[in-house]
Specification:
341 residues; 6-stranded mixed beta sheet; 5-stranded mixed beta sheet; alpha/beta; 28% helix
Length: 341
């Protein structure tokens, strides 16, 4: 049981005007993504009249560095060490974290036996291809050419159908420019021919839990702004989900939910196998994956993003996400209810 507040340090590179770079600040991390989950937990605590059981501090590092090493953590004064350290470093620009960075976090900032969350080194598209059990990279047409970072914009992600088109692209880009791109196989979405739409699964992951944001679009470049979407969970999780919600003080009886449940055990088991493989490869504890289903029950990850957060519109998912975080950190009262930052 947790008797004293759980102390968490969020290490991030989302630097705002009021942030002291390379300085631990007592203000909680509240910007975007993972920080939104910590902020939402405040409301859960108020609802159940509970004392604060999680104390969140913030350590901002410089943004958009090509390499984050142990030198970025030198000379930072640390008082009492932390029960958990969360790495929330956005690597969309292709940045890399070194093993020395994580070793320094463990030695200087984390209590003995503490938890280091999300020690992700890189999320480039070439790393995604190497981690995939599907042979994703190619050097021939048809293919998708995209920047080897995570800035997915329409002008950096495009389809090439013929060898002539591919030769023309190579002739118009220098060897150095080409090295910034990767070529992935042009995958056909399962069901596209019958539906006339492209389908993308955005997997929202918190530890071993999986929620899917299905997205449908008539455009190849499927983004939230161009698609119709809805949220889905494994029906086999429903009973446990309702139990977690009851423990959080959320009265679900008589309500509608903004998250559907799908019964297809074979498909879910195939997804969980891919999830385990990518968790082992990238070492993330929370992430979002962009996934294509080219054939029935075959799932191919095409992008890894380690900056997720519960949709603020999706109340049901927000409630569950707070529980998953509390369960992982073993933060609870004697009655089993969720603690809060």
């Amino acid at each position: 049981m947790t008797t004293n507040p759980h102390r968490m340090l969020v290490v991030h590179n989302l630097v705002g005007a009021g942030d002291g770079v390379q300085t631990i600040e007592s203000k909680p991390f509240r910007r975007f993504a993972f920080g939104s989950l910590l902020a939402y937990a405040d409301d859960v605590a108020k609802r159940i009249g509970q004392q604060r059981l999680l104390q969140s501090h913030s350590l901002a590092l410089p943004g958009a560095l090509s390499v984050y090493g142990e030198d970025q953590l030198q000379g930072i004064p640390v008082g009492e060490k932390y029960d958990s350290v969360v790495c929330h470093l956005v690597l969309d620009h292709g940045g890399v974290l070194t093993e020395g960075f994580f070793s320094t976090l463990r030695a200087q900032f984390l209590k003995t036996g503490g938890i280091l969350l999300n020690p992700v080194k890189s999320i480039t598209k070439s790393d995604v291809a190497r981690a995939s059990q599907f042979e994703l990279e190619t050097q021939t047409a048809p293919c998708v050419i995209k920047k080897n970072d995570n800035y997915n914009r329409p002008d950096t992600v495009f389809e090439v159908y013929t060898g002539t088109q591919l030769d023309a692209w190579r002739e118009s880009n220098t060897t150095e420019e080409q090295s910034r791109y990767v070529m992935h196989k042009l995958l056909r979405y399962f069901g596209t021919e019958s539906s006339g739409l492209y389908q993308l699964e955005r997997w929202v992951i918190l530890f071993d839990d999986l929620t899917i944001n299905y997205r449908y679009s008539d455009e190849f470049y499927v983004k939230s702004a161009t698609s119709l979407s809805y949220w889905v969970r494994d029906e086999r999780c429903l009973s446990d989900d309702l139990g977690r919600l009851a423990d959080s003080g959320y009265n679900w009886k008589g309500r509608s939910i903004d998250c559907a449940y799908s019964h297809d055990p074979d498909a879910w088991d195939a997804r969980y196998a891919v999830l385990r493989a990518f968790r082992n490869a990238f070492r993330f504890d929370y992430a979002e994956l962009d996934v294509i289903q080219p054939a029935k029950h075959e799932f191919v990850v095409i992008d890894v993003n380690n900056t997720p957060g519960p949709s603020y519109r999706n109340v049901f998912w927000r409630e569950l996400a707070v529980r998953f975080l509390a369960d992982r950190l073993d933060i609870r009262t004697s009655g089993g209810a969720v603690g809060s930052p």
